[in-house]
Amino acid sequence: MQLQTEHELHGRRRSRNVGLGIVLIAFVALVFALTVVKVTQGHLLEAYDHQPRTTLLPMEPEAAAPAAEAAR
After folding, report:
1. How confident is the model over 1-54, as pLDDT tens digits?
2. Distance (Å) of CA 31 to CA 12, 26, 36, 43, 50
3. Could you please report the per-residue DSSP string of 11-36?
4. Exposed (0-12), middle (13-18) or buried (19+): which is 7, by Cβ within 10 Å?
């Protein structure tokens, strides 16, 4: 037998706190999962520093010709 009975206000407050805790844990898990995905697929990402991405530019024919001759 309890010495003091719990007031119903405390019960409602506890249930709201548990709900908020679950929401916060879900948010942290979502942010962690997104971070893991971005880190594991990092080779696909390049920093955006207001420069053209060289991997997206087509290779110029005159630049490719000397490289092919040097390989011979």
Report:
1. 567 778 888 888 999 999 999 999 999 999 999 989 888 876 666 666 656 666
2. 29, 9, 9, 20, 27
3. HHHHHHHHHHHHHHHHHHHHHHHHHH
4. exposed
